[in-house]
């Protein structure tokens, strides 16, 4: 099965209506989506929606369509610390610069990643979050091909100073960055993916994706209280802290609904990068200490993020299965940024105070 076979079997005009546009930094997308998915996506992306620009990268969402036949899938290796099958891939022949099929194992949603249109097909209306991630992946791919580095980080900006925070999964970066959103003048840039471009100054670019947060983040921030029912909050407060910290139960935080309009900005000058290396078991006070990143390769592991199975390099190669990022470009991109290690005990009041001092200048 070739890319030509697949394109011949799909109806790329099924959306009917004209595409809507999305703009993030240097990337413009034209998203072709049928109703009611189209309206739901426009509501979700909100302030980042625009008219589709001429020459924008096309994204086709083909709800209910399927491949002409199932290929031989290969499981994609997950990053360290994660188990279970999530993605499967199949690389296709017959395309001048390569093409790849990716399937979400649990949902059955399938993607065609190739030069030209990016395509999602299958039960899309039942898996809106997966569709949103695919759309944002096209922004990440374009920027990576232009030399940006992908960091596993959350970030806020006031337009002059941008703070990004990394940590291992569940390490508290979302809770920390949302505490920074309580500071006057800050705007949300990203919850989980930050693109970094070196320079004077370095730049940070987020993607139009609202935070998906755990119950512990909600319980620790009165502003977020309305995201949970009183019954659920009571049950969670009775949960042992260690179990609550490990609980995987995600909720969407739509930034304008909680913080008001104009509180998102997807780009800013990257001035500060904090890496969470703290612990519940520590009895030391929380400290934010400048470090030289080239001398602390252990911290790079929390910053670097593999682009995953969707990434196609500029020369047409796809990211190899199990590949790890190269640390050198990250060290270079962050060379002009103040990098700090956050150590000691986990204390969100302390990190919020440190953030206030930072943005107060």
UniProtKB/TrEMBL annotation:
Keywords on record: Kinase, Transferase
The protein's name in its UniProt record: HprK-related kinase B
Organism: Ponticoccus litoralis
Record SUPFAM superfamilies: PEP carboxykinase-like
GO molecular function: kinase activity
Gene3D superfamilies xrefs: P-loop containing nucleotide triphosphate hydrolases
Coiled coil stretches, renumbered: none
